Amino acid sequence: MQRYDLIVVGAGPAGLSAAIEASKAGMTTIVFDENAKPGGQLFKQIHKFFGSKENRAKVRGFKIGEELLKKAEEYGVEVKLNAVVIGLYPEKEITVKMDDVVFHYKGDAILIATGASENALNFRGWTLPGVIGAGAAQTIMNLHHVKPGNKVLMVGTGNVGLVVSYQLMQAGCEVTALIDVLPRISGYGVHAAKIARCGVQFYPSHTIIQAEGKECVTGAVIGEVDKNWKIKPGTEKHFDVDTICTAVGLSPMSQLLKQAGCEMMSTKGGYIPVCNEYGETSIGGIFAAGDVSSIEEASSAMIEGRISGIDIAYTLGYLSNKKREKYYTKLKCDLENLRKGMFGPENRGKLLKKTDENIDISMNLLHRGYISDDEIFRYPGIVKKSGIHPVMECTQNIPCNPCQDACPKGCITIGENITSLPIVDLDKICIGCGMCVASCPGQAIFLVDEDFEEKYASVMIPYEFLPLPEKGEKGKAMDRSGKVVCEAEVIGVKTAMLFDHTNLLTIKVPKNMAMKARFYKTGRS
């Protein structure tokens, strides 16, 4: 039997973060993961993270994964891959299967960070090839660089469904529609908006009835549901698709904790262990962090892992209580900030009608994925002024503030409350650098100059599709709903390492389209 100070099960964001903190304190730490590569879900996540600068906001998930692995190696964390933990026992012992051989390990502390698994959705034809989970689609695209399909129907409009839909389009797939049995879009509005302006429609209060096809998916039938979740007769709609992607939630993979005898509780978010503020379960020395203890974002999982790692180091005598409390106070504050806003735990499932600033929330955004023209000017980030200036179509209280730090001239203000809506300071002079546009994880910031020419305005938009349009090229400008509204000419294309693959495309449009043109469609055949 081999012995370690800390054994971590799961090499994702929570597990690696805990292992790093423990090893920094001088502990011998080993991490087991059943996969061939470490990093968990991070290496699928090519989008930029929300949150604060301190918690890696505006950094893409796979880069955060690379940073964690580098730190783990630097601090001497031992990582075992293709290692399936098949047993966890109250004496803080585990059994691990590697290469068809079972090994026995004992730790002074054990952290379970096994994450979550995708929920399946049962409907007619759900076992046909071409029906896949959103996480599987992400794996196929972003790890193996293979298109999951050509024409895709997405089932589910939470953040996973929205993010993966956008990434499917980036991979060259056509997303025909997004549907959700709920009466409104359940993920971040900024995620929905960047899909809607590409011309993709949302169907809330709809569910999938059938996947068509004999040997593989050749089509899909959806229908509208009533208040009792029953299909309304005559509302069926058909889509010609070859792929049906389901994003209908996650379930914590908490089986090991149950096996060990930890106290468990059943919640709407799954079967999870009862933990204290440091992630310790009812069995002393056994901890849980990340999605296995509650389904949240990767940013929260990393903080939870760090909190557990620091407490384990204290418990085993590697860290003083003074240092533990200092670190914990800061990390707890960061975690609470990430859990604020209209998508925080206390607001899940609620239909909020006002922002924290007492501004009416866009109902059009919740139902169709975009803010209507008659709603847009109620938000503090939407201004009209002489010369170039930022227009921030961020209209929900989301924990995110990189735009405030990105602006070198202080044109953008969010304040101490990370979920406050961004405000344009009209007294500050925008220099048109585009740093705010590139930094926004939701791609919700645009630079507008209505005085660009006598009859024309310029609009700088974030652009993350290939091939990049070329300067001088002419095409179409699309509004927030994805409707073509006018001719557009590309007058600038900016790329830089500092932008981290968010290209800045500047288009020239008629002056009266300055506050409507939000996407560019190439005119090339």
**For the report, how would you describe the main beta sheet?**
7 strands, mixed
Poorly predicted sequence stretches spanning 5 or more consecutive residues: none
Number of strands: 28
Ends distance: 65 Å
The CATH topology of the largest domain is given as FAD/NAD(P)-binding domain
* Annotated CATH architecture of the largest domain: 3-Layer(bba) Sandwich
Radius of gyration over C-alpha positions, nearest whole angstrom: 24 Å
CATH class (first level) name of the largest domain: Alpha Beta
Please provide a brief summary of the model.
By secondary structure, the chain is of the alpha/beta class. The protein has helices spanning 13-24, 61-74, 134-143, 159-170, 189-196, 255-260, 298-315, 321-338, 363-368, 402-406, 435-439; strands at 2-9, 29-32, 78-80, 84-89, 93-98, 101-112, 116-118, 131-133, 151-155, 174-180, 201-204, 206-212, 219-224, 237-239, 243-246, 250-252, 264-267, 270-273, 286-288, 389-392, 412-413, 423-424, 445-449, 456-463, 474-478, 484-494, 503-510, 519-521. The protein is 22% helix and 27% strand.
Write a structural description.
This protein is of the alpha/beta class. It has three domains: 2-117 and 250-338, FAD/NAD(P)-binding domain (3-Layer(bba) Sandwich); 120-246, FAD/NAD(P)-binding domain (3-Layer(bba) Sandwich); 376-521, no CATH class. 22% of the residues lie in helices and 27% in strands. It contains eleven helices and 28 strands. The strands form seven sheets. Strands 1, 2, 3, 4, 5, 6 and 19 form a seven-stranded mixed beta sheet that branches. Helix 3 (134-143) runs parallel beside helix 4 (159-170) and helix 4 packs parallel to helix 5. The radius of gyration is 24 Å and the shape is globular. The chain starts with a strand and ends with a strand. The model has no long low-confidence stretch (mean pLDDT 96).
